[in-house]
Write a structure and sequence with these properties.
4 helices; 99 residues; mainly alpha; Arc Repressor Mutant, subunit A
Length: 99
């Protein structure tokens, strides 16, 4: 189970609120997270969309900045996973060399 920083969760919920035409599934895909995870964050935050907007309205394409931010966050998560794998491998091999 991955742990996400509170800032990331808040930004994801804010992104959901700021894009009334986009679905949870679309936003989760943009951020590289599970849709159920995003749905839980939205529920926990008690967030709702502004009135007058329909969820099935055509989605606004993400701005270049939003796309870049989502890509950067995804890359950060990948690098953190790689670092954790290397850390575990180093710990494992360090344990094997001790007699």
């Amino acid at each position: 189970m991955k742990n996400y920083p509170p800032e990331f969760k808040a930004d994801a919920v804010a992104l959901y609120q700021s894009r009334p035409g986009a679905t949870i599934r679309q936003i989760a895909a943009d951020l590289g997270i599970n849709p159920e995870t995003l749905r839980n964050w939205i529920r926990t935050a008690g967030a709702s969309r502004p009135r007058g907007h329909r969820a099935d309205a055509p989605a606004q394409p993400p701005t270049p900045l939003e796309g870049e931010l989502a890509a950067a966050r995804k890359r950060i998560r990948e690098l953190e996973e790689e670092r954790e794998i290397l850390r575990k491998a180093a710990k494992y091999f360090a344990g094997e060399t001790r007699w």
